[in-house]
Each structure stands twice: as C-alpha cells, then as structure tokens.
Amino acid sequence: MKVRALGLIFIIGVLLLAGCGKKEIKGALNWPVKDFSYTNQDGKSFGSKNLKGKVWVADFVFTSCVDVCPPMTSNMASLQKKIKEAGIKNVEFVSFSVDPTVDKPETLKNYGGRFGVDFKNWNFLTGYSQEEIETKAMKEFKTIVKKPQEGDQVIHGTDFFLLNQEGKIQKYYTGLQEIPYDKIVDDIKTLQ
Fold first, then answer.
1. How confident is the model at residue 23 (pLDDT cuts 50, 70, 90)?
2. Contact at 8 Å (CB) between 105 and 39?
3. Smallest Cα–Cα separation from 166: which of 53, 43, 18, 28?
4. What is the C-alpha to C-alpha distance for residues 50 and 25, in angstroms, rounded to an integer?
5. Closest listed residue to residue 92, CA positions, set 126, 60, 119
6. What is the DSSP letter of 42?
C-alpha cells in the first residue's frame, strides 16, 4: 500500500512538472510569418534567421508619421525596458517601416535614437518595396498597411504582435493607448 501511494505521488509530481514546462499561450493565433531578410538601421541584413529560437514583438511604423507612430514607438521602448527589468532574455523587438522608400537605414537609426531604444535587441527594418510590406502586413499579420497616392502619411495598424520561437504570431495587443504591459510580459514568460 505504501509503495502504491509513493508511486501515485511520483506520477502526480511528474504530471505537475510536465505542466509547468508548457510553453503555450491559451487561445494562441499561431499565424505563421514567412521567412524574410531585410535591412536594419545599421544597413545590415536582418531577418527570420536572426529571430529563430527567440520570442519577438513586432509593429509597423514610419519615421515621418505625425500621429500614431511616436506614441507607439515610445510604448514599445517602455515595453523593452520592462522586459529588461523583469530579467527576461532572448526577446527581440522588430519595427517594420511602412514607408520603405523614405525610411533609409540612417533615418531609422535616428528615429529610434529619439526614443532611447536599445538597438542590441531592437531592429528597425526597411529594404523592401511598398507592395511587399503591404502584402506581408495583410496576409501574415492580418493588419492594414496602405500608402495613399497623395500625401506622405501611410495608413497602418497600431498593434504590437507577439511571436513565438518558431515565428508564429501568438497574440496581438494595442500599441497605442492603455498598453497591457503586464499581460504582454506574462505572455512572454509563458513562451520562455
């Protein structure tokens, strides 16, 4: 009887430990993002291969934006700081420019610098066509990016996207107002 009780305790312990190691977010979207390789703020190639095995947070911005991009970038910079303060490693931040003909690497570097971003784990990307980023945003991230025929302001979504180590979108959160920082940090910890 004693051996049976010890065996039962052992099995329960193993099941509990197995549950603790689970790296899934409940209700995860699991939208795959296709492999990519673009140019970052340093003029270097950066893409899927650099993100493999890492959790990452992505958004869509452009440097000449007059309304939503500055607060979004400021909010992402705050999230970057919170992740660092929480001691979480292997998290990358990726901002896709939605105006690639204007946003050259040096322009992106200056823009990120205005917000005090840490470029060690945050890459601002360009080096693709307008059509390519509009298609990638819509088909893979399920968000709009559209540069009108006239004017210099690009229409785009304002969400932050959380991707797992396999490059699949797990969730998205508002990137503009009332950012759920604690929820994002918790979700990142779950994926770690």
1. confident
2. yes
3. 53
4. 23
5. 119
6. T
pLDDT of residue 129: 98
Partner residues linked to 146 by β-bridges: 155
C-beta of residue 130 within 8 angstroms of C-beta of residue 101: yes
Read off the pTM: 0.88
CA pseudo-torsion sign 67, 70, 71, 73: positive
What percent of the residues of the chain are helix, what percent strand, and what percent coil, each to the nearest 5?
Answer: 40, 20, 40
Q: Can you name the residues that pair with 60 across neighbouring β-strands?
A: 96
Taking alpha carbons only, the member of 74, 63, 58 closest to residue 176 is 74
pLDDT at 24: 84
Would the CA dihedral through 127, 140, 143, 68 be positive or negative? negative
pLDDT in tens, 114-155: 999 999 999 999 999 999 999 999 999 999 999 998 989 999
Q: Which residues, 6+ apart, have CB-to-CB distance to 113 below 8 Å?
A: none
**Between helices 69-85 and 181-191, what is the axis angle to 10°?**
50
CB contact at 8 A, 51 and 136: no
pLDDT score at 1: 53
User: Could you identify the residue written with the tokens 């977010």?
Assistant: 25
